[in-house]
Amino acid sequence: MSIPAGKPVPRFSLRDQHGAEVAVGGEAEDGRATLLVFYPFAFSGVCGSELAALRDAGGEFDGERVRLVAVSCDPMHSLRGYADQEGFGFPLLSDFWPHGSAARAYGVFDEARGCAGRGSFLIDRDGVLRWSLVNPISEARPLDAYREALAGAGL
Prior knowledge:
This protein has four helices and nine strands. By secondary structure, the chain is α/β, with parallel strands linked by helices. The strands form three sheets. A five-stranded mixed β-sheet has the order 5-4-3-8-9. A two-stranded antiparallel ribbon has the order 1-2. Strands 6-7 form a two-stranded antiparallel sheet. The mean pLDDT is 94.
């Protein structure tokens, strides 16, 4: 299932690496758009390099205009260790149980591997999809694709 641009996204709420509940979809309480990034596994090479690049870009992808939220099917405690080790200050949400429910709602759950695929979604502050990119698990998403999406959405 793919979500067409211009349509409302599925809403979900998951716990982050600190155990706090984080909601995605619907109207944003803080008025920011959401850059939602699904990734397969914590502590893996391609995932780590992608998330590190987003971290290193600073406020470009997680700031006043947009918040960065990353989701995997790893358990919350693993995500805490991963965030601490890598210095990720943005929320890493655990889609562990029910296993992959958020990834399934966005059409990026890999049934054969039991993990989220590499799907990225730009959601405006009204909960409407503005852009998406889904890559094969072995293929990192380029930062320039995110930059182009933000620019195209006027963010």
